[in-house]
Design goal:
The protein is mainly alpha-helical. It has a domain of 43 residues. Helix content is 74%, strand content 5%. The protein is built from 2 helices and 2 strands, in the order H-E-E-H. The chain has a two-stranded antiparallel ribbon. A hairpin with a 2-residue loop joins strand 1 and strand 2. Helix 1 packs antiparallel against helix 2. The protein is elongated, with a radius of gyration of 17 Å. The relative contact order is 0.13.
Length: 78
């Protein structure tokens, strides 16, 4: 099923799932970590909403786009 997937796909998956598992482990091991306040808002809202839903996904989308553009440029030169 995943045979022949481009390497950038795996890089994107490592970034997304690495972020998820990093914060999963941090939330499990550090007492009161997700509910500590930052600017009056629980910290978990900030890192999950801003980082998890926006910034990381935009970075991965940009990586996928740039990698596809570079692949198409390589193929057109041949």
């Amino acid at each position: 099923m995943f045979k022949g997937m481009p390497k950038i796909f795996w890089v994107g998956m490592v970034i997304l799932y690495g972020y998820f598992f990093l914060f999963l482990i941090l939330e499990i091991t550090i007492p009161k970590f997700p509910l500590s306040k930052f600017l009056g808002v629980p910290f978990c809202y900030i890192y999950n909403w801003i980082m998890g839903l926006w910034i990381i996904n935009l970075i991965v989308a940009a990586l996928f786009y740039l990698a596809e553009e570079a692949r198409e440029a390589r193929l057109s030169k041949k």
